[in-house]
Specification:
heterodimer, A: alpha/beta, six-stranded mixed beta sheet, 21 helices, 12 strands, disordered C terminus, B: alpha/beta, three-stranded antiparallel beta sheet, disordered N terminus
Chain lengths: ~600, ~290
């Protein structure tokens, strides 16, 4: 009978709670005895509003908040250790995670509280709980964060690296913001679990919510009302966590409306004043919006204006003091192999300032790898490469050999070599404009307002003035590649490397990208281009280099190599390329 | 009874003297809160942390009138003992199973909460004995199954704590029942007392076997709901535990208890919580 009464009460209570809550006055008696005189709803309310229980809830919240923050920080460190290229570092992190995940948390808490005093480390209950939960959480969040990092395409980091961004900057600005979408649900789960699990800390004298509820029950045996009240308090607290999680997920949602004012606010508090889009004649589309008074623009026609912006970009490139007649890039006897497979077998190549060199060759001939060694995205095993007379991230050791040095990111930034990739590699979480101005602001410390103006002009140059606030996935392939070119231009490069920039595009989109590249060449940009676009090579290149099997087979002017190849391999390759439909598409667009 | 207790105090004092060199213990046991520095120099300036689990009625629990206070047999005894000696003290509230490790590690100074003296336990801590332990059979009010002795449990459903003394007893009782041609004991062990009580409330079990002090206190405070079916005495003694070698603290507790016992205050505290005053035993320090 008693049981039936309780169940009926519980059911009614759950159903009628909102009504009761809004119409009842707060009960005065916080600790009704087991007299059966107080109405259950009043009694329940008195426990829900009990300062005694809420104090316990506050302790649980404090432990959770501090331990979660510390656990996430440690977890990030452990996740990075797990991804390290050093075996010892990886193994240490793995070992830690193995121990912490594999042993009961209750025992960990008792160990910290009761065993560490024997070696002179005596922590209070609260501190023990915070340390214990943080250390445990570190192990779990390490795996969640590692999963998030692995979910981000590696090419994102490659693109950031090519812009001179340091590993830390790349992690903070590029990888983690994108990883957050994968990380947040797991962290939300863990936070809620931790809040509820703080009850196990009663074993080390932490008087949190569950333990307090049990104490009330231990005193009056009113299980249902007391536990229901504690349950409701937990529900309220976990609801707040759920709301925070939803808010955080919305913050990192790529589908969010990007045209809202101040599109950069989302990015870790970084915020710029919105300025008018300066109208610069569109290079590609030919549309001419009204010109604003940009200091560097030259009035009077699209060629003049495009030369203005491009001239500014070229003018910003650092002067190395060398005579312009000397080659900008010098590659001597470059060797590279992956495991047993030789990819580069002694490449010799020089590129002069303002020269456009096109690298042709069949797949697997080592063109892309070679391109990546120029800005040290790939290391070389033998030989040397200098850009403006400097090694990038290498130093000569006694005996004449080169050895990689620290500070590679700074060396890359100082060299100002930008790169355009086959798959664009735009930062997926940033708008077109944000993509363009990220490196100028973060790496080259350009004034944000100035960078924004430059970014808008560059996007205008590539015909994307109407897409500045669009995320990459809202753009076509051709548009994405043009953003990528604007991004590469924004760092005022000495030289631009193009790695098959049109290979991933639909044929009808190839032309718009090639047109932009052609303009760059006309403006005097030094370019090394890996492409299969024979027509582009013929019309734009100063020199064509044909590679096969990791070697330069022949090099010369387009007329020499394309129209009058000396080697059978070159001839065979060109015959095949002429049958490719890409050439036809390119010719129609150009 | 009183004279018996006095004899026991004498014996206990002698026992203390055997293992403690402090001159303090030889003094007459009277409350002298101002003389703490002379009587127990090791405790001067110390604030004693008393570890208790406030969900172990009637030993330690929250005061229904004021949740910031802990009350109960053990809490009241501890408070009285330390007040008598003039020792500053505070309660540390934690889960029961965490109390003893905390004494050993020095996180708290004394565990005072329904702890049984066992020789193997005395290897880790020093124990000050003060109360007999027993098992009580809690049954619904009116004892509808008429359970008045262990043999009445044959064919009944019986609940007790997992791994408790009662666990062993009931396995033996089951054999006894079957040997006598009667149905065996249906056992229903539980993890915590609260869930055990729910079993009894829900009529899922006929009898709840638990600490006698608890059973008596519960039956006397809820006479319309519960009753004591029967009681058995295991021979175990309840004690407060201090870190090994903390002899001044052990002496304070022992002397304080001796004074309370001599004045009848320990029995008064027992009665206050519905615990049988006959469970008192003369205090004694056990170091092994």
């Amino acid at each position: 009978m008693l049981q039936k009464n309780y169940l009926a009460s519980l059911l009614t209570m759950v159903l009628a709670f909102p009504l009761v809550f809004t119409t009842s006055t707060q009960a005065d008696n916080l600790a009704p005895g087991d007299k059966g005189e107080t109405h259950w709803a009043r009694e329940f309310l008195s426990y829900v509003t009990s300062g005694f229980l809420w104090e316990g809830a506050l302790i649980a919240v404090e432990i959770t908040a501090i331990a979660m923050a510390a656990g996430l920080a440690l977890g990030l460190g452990l996740a990075l250790m797990r991804l390290s290229s050093f075996r010892v570092v990886r193994a240490s992190a793995w070992f830690y995670i193995w121990i912490m995940r594999g042993t009961p948390q209750l025992l960990q808490l008792v160990f910290i509280f009761d065993a560490l005093p024997f070696i002179g480390l005596k922590f209070s209950s609260f501190t023990t709980a915070v340390i214990g939960f943080a250390l445990n959480q570190a192990a779990f969040s390490a795996e969640i964060i590692r999963g998030g990092i692995l979910s981000v395409n590696k090419n994102q980091a490659v693109a950031a690296t090519s812009l001179g961004m340091s590993p830390f900057l790349t992690l903070r600005r590029i990888v983690l913001p994108q990883a957050m979408r994968a990380i947040l649900p797991g962290i939300g789960n863990d936070t809620i679990s931790m809040l509820k699990l703080t009850s196990i800390a009663s074993i080390i004298f932490v008087n949190e919510l569950t333990f307090r509820a049990q104490q009330i029950v231990g005193q009056n045996f009113r299980f249902f009302v007391v536990f229901a009240a504690a349950g409701l308090i937990y529900l309220l607290l976990t609801s707040v966590i759920s709301l925070i999680q939803a808010w955080a997920e919305a913050r990192f949602d790529l589908e969010r409306d990007r045209t809202a004012p101040d599109p950069l606010r989302r990015m870790f508090g970084f915020s710029l004043k919105r300025t008018e889009t300066p109208g610069v004649t569109a290079l590609v589309t030919g549309k001419a919006p009204p010109r604003s008074s940009t200091p560097l623009a030259i009035a009077g026609g699209k060629d003049a204006s495009s030369r203005g912006t491009l001239a500014e970009v070229l003018g910003r490139a650092p002067s190395d003091g060398a005579r312009s007649s000397e080659p900008l890039i010098v590659c001597r006897n470059v060797h590279k192999q992956y495991g047993a497979q030789k990819v580069l077998c002694g490449i010799d190549l020089t590129v002069k300032r303002g020269e456009v060199v096109v690298l042709l060759g069949p797949s697997g001939s080592g063109k892309s790898t070679f391109l990546r060694t120029i800005n040290h995205l790939d290391t070389i095993d033998w030989g040397e490469i200098t850009v403006a007379g400097q090694h990038i991230g290498y130093q000569r050791i006694p005996g004449g050999q080169l050895k990689p040095t620290g500070g590679l990111a700074q060396a890359r930034a100082a060299a100002r070599i930008s790169m355009v990739f086959q798959h664009f590699n735009l930062f997926n979480h940033m708008t077109a404009l944000e993509n363009v101005i990220e490196a100028p602001i973060r790496v080259f410390k350009m004034d944000p307002v100035e960078a924004r103006q430059l970014g808008l002009r560059l996007l205008d140059e590539v015909g994307l003035q109407n897409h500045v606030n669009h995320l990459p996935h809202r753009l076509s392939g051709g548009q994405q590649q043009r953003v990528a070119i604007a991004r590469a231009l924004a760092i005022s490069p000495r030289v631009m490397l193009f790695d098959e920039p049109t290979s991933a595009l639909d044929p009808e989109l190839v032309g718009e990208v090639l047109a932009v590249m052609r303009k760059l060449a006309d403006a005097g940009m030094t370019m090394v281009v890996v492409t299969h676009e024979i027509r582009f090579a013929r019309e734009v290149a100063d020199r064509v280099v044909f590679m096969d099997g990791g070697l330069v087979v022949e090099a010369g002017t387009p007329a020499e190599v394309l129209d009058n190849p000396q080697h059978e391999r070159t001839r065979r390759f060109l015959r095949i390329m002429e049958c490719e439909p890409v050439a036809a598409a390119e010719s129609s667009a150009a | 009874m009183r004279s018996h207790a006095a004899t026991m105090i004498g014996a206990a004092t002698l026992n203390i003297g055997l293992f403690m060199t402090s001159a303090a213990v030889a003094q007459q046991p009277v409350c002298e809160p101002d003389k703490i520095a002379q009587k127990y120099p090791g405790l001067a300036g110390r604030t004693i942390k008393i570890g208790v689990d406030p969900q172990t009625p009637p030993y330690v629990m929250r005061d229904a009138a004021d949740f910031t206070k802990v009350i109960g047999v053990d809490a009241d005894l501890a408070r009285a003992v330390f007040t008598c000696a003039g020792v500053k003290h505070e309660f540390f509230l934690g889960g029961w199973s965490g109390l003893l490790p905390a004494v050993m590690s020095g996180q708290i100074d004394v565990m005072w909460d329904n702890l049984y003296y066992k020789p193997e336990r005395a290897k880790s801590v020093d124990l000050i004995l003060y109360m007999k332990a027993g098992t009580g059979a809690l049954v619904p009010a009116g004892n509808p199954q008429n359970i008045t002795k262990k043999d009445d449990l044959c064919g009944r459903t019986v609940s007790y704590g997992v791994g408790s003394v009662e666990d062993v007893t009931m396995k033996e009782q089951d054999k006894v029942c079957r040997a006598g041609g009667l149905p065996g004991v249906n056992v229903m062990p539980f993890q915590d007392l609260a869930s055990g009580l729910r079993l009894l409330d829900n009529s899922r079990t006929d009898v709840l076997l638990w600490d006698l002090g608890f059973v008596d206190a519960t039956a006397s405070s809820n006479p319309k709901k519960y009753a004591r079916g029967f009681a058995t005495y295991s021979g175990l003694i309840i004690a407060a535990a201090v870190k090994k070698g903390d002899s001044d603290l052990a002496a304070v507790i022992h002397d304080g208890l001796a004074i309370l016992q001599s004045k009848g205050e320990q029995k008064a505290i027992f009665q206050k919580y519905g615990v049988d005053p006959g469970l008192e035993v003369s205090t004694q320090v056990k170091t092994n």
